[in-house]
Amino acid sequence: MKVISIVGARPQLVKLAPIAAAFAETEHEHRIVHTGQHYDADLSDVFFSGLGIPDPDVHLGVGSGSHGVQTGAVLSALDPVFEAERPDWVLVYGDTNSTVAGALSAVKMHLPVAHLEAGLRSFNRRMPEEHNRVLTDHCADLLLAPTEEAMRHLAHEGLAARSALAGDVMVDICLRIRDAVLAGEHPAPALPEGIDRTQPFLLATLHRPDNTDDPERLDALVGALAGLPVPVALLAHPRLVARAEEHGIELARGAIQVGRPLPYAGLVAAVLASAGVVTDSGGLQKEAFLLERICTTVRPETEWIETVRAGWNTLVPDPHELSDVKWAETVLRPSPADDPGKPYGDGRAAHNVVRLLEEWQDSPQHAKRAR
Ligand code: UD1
User: Fold this and answer.
1) Does the CB atom of residue 40 touch ligand 1 within 6 A?
2) What is the CA radius of gyration of the chain?
3) What distance in angstroms lies between residue 38's CA and the mean position of ligand 1's atoms?
4) Over 60: is that where the pLDDT of 371 sits?
5) CATH assignment of the domain containing 154
6) Where in the sequence is the domain holding 103, given as residue range(s)?
7) Which of 30, 204, 267, 337 can bridge 23 by disulfide, Cβ–Cβ 3.0-4.6 Å?
8) Domain shared by 163 and 26, yes or no
């Protein structure tokens, strides 16, 4: 079986790591196409080296651009790659512009597509990721859902027959790296200057367009972090840095110490060292949950509803709707006492994915799609 993984943005590289490792234990041919959506070393290269992912077989080098330009560039660059490779499966990950472009390009060439992390929904049509998820799920042949909730969403949209519960591959990688960090196999993370890791601090990230692109909203969120009574290590995504500069918003103020995005092991170590997390990232909400740190999500909704139900994640769409005291109490609240269970699976999701691809390859539906 020949499988091509299409990746391009940081969270996809994290998900690729356990998949590439699971394929390496088999006879299957696994090829990696990097679209180049993320190109900064901090967002791309360090994930390949740090997580032991083989170098991409093909790099499309599309870079940044408006949604249409970026998606279109991936779409047109993939045609010759797929034509040359004719894989048995195209595997796309998550919800970025690289995901939807990979899925669309493949179905148009009658290549079977599997979508990893299918069925997530925020029901917020302002998010570019929401369009990408819905479109990818509806054009893919096999929907690999991370959770029961995702399976329900897919069934609700009439996609049950193409869906399978695989579990969440982020559990595989997060727990493996956590164990390595706790065993002292990684150096201490490069936290922003001014953060003393022996004292309580919060770890923060902001990168969603809804939070970064409106100057008033961005200034208010940065102000809310700056006013907290403990130091805040703000790991600044390039979009955040670019928008803050553009709008003349100072990030390094009050409690905030600004640093660069961390490699994956550094991020896991930083979460473990922190008193809690404030973020708008999907992945980090779940990493905080898996690493048993409380998370406050500055968004009106989350796709990872299990983290909220278990009491480890709280949504605060607008910190200024709370008093300063209530906001500080929220982000520094104690951890819940109840066992959160394992809503994201047992850390064997990547093996499930390989097995499901093998099983579905033998299905009549697959044979009809494949040439
Ligand atoms: C993308 C994904 C988002 C994911 C995030 C993880 C989409 C629609 N969004 O958002 O789902 O959570 O990746 O980080 O695909 N930039 C750089 N260097 C880079 C990459 C980006 O400087 O290597 C800057 C550029 O100014 C660029 C901006 O960041 O325009 C946004 O990058 P882009 O890939 O378009 O989206 P993200 O915000 O990273």
Assistant:
1) yes
2) 20
3) 6
4) no
5) 3.40.50.2000
6) 2-168+345-370
7) 30
8) yes
**% of the chain exceeding 70 in pLDDT:** 98
* pLDDT score recorded for residue 362: 81
Question: CB within 8 A of 237, min separation 6: which ones?
Answer: 43, 205, 206, 207, 261
Mean pLDDT of 6-33: 98
One domain, residues 294 and 357: no
Residues 6+ away with beta carbon under 8 Å from 241: 251
Tell whether 164 and 222 lie within a shared domain. no
Ligand 1 lined by 239 (C-beta under 6 Å): yes
Among 96, 126, 210, which residue has the most ligand 1 atoms within 8 Å of its CB, making it the best to mutate?
A: 96
Q: Which residue of 6, 37, 97 sits with most ligand 1 atoms within 8 Å of its CB, as the best mutation to test the pocket? A: 37
Average pLDDT over residues 69-87: 97
Active site residues: 207
The answer as to whether 340 is a domain residue is no
Does the beta carbon of 128 lie inside 6 Å of ligand 1? yes
pLDDT digits over 219-270, tens only?
999 999 999 999 999 999 999 999 999 999 999 999 999 999 999 999 999 9
Q: How far is the CA of 239 from the centre of ligand 1 (A)?
A: 6
Is 174 inside any structural domain? no
Q: Are residues 262 and 143 in the same domain?
A: no
Please identify, by atom number, the ligand 1 atom nearest to the C-alpha of residue 207: 38
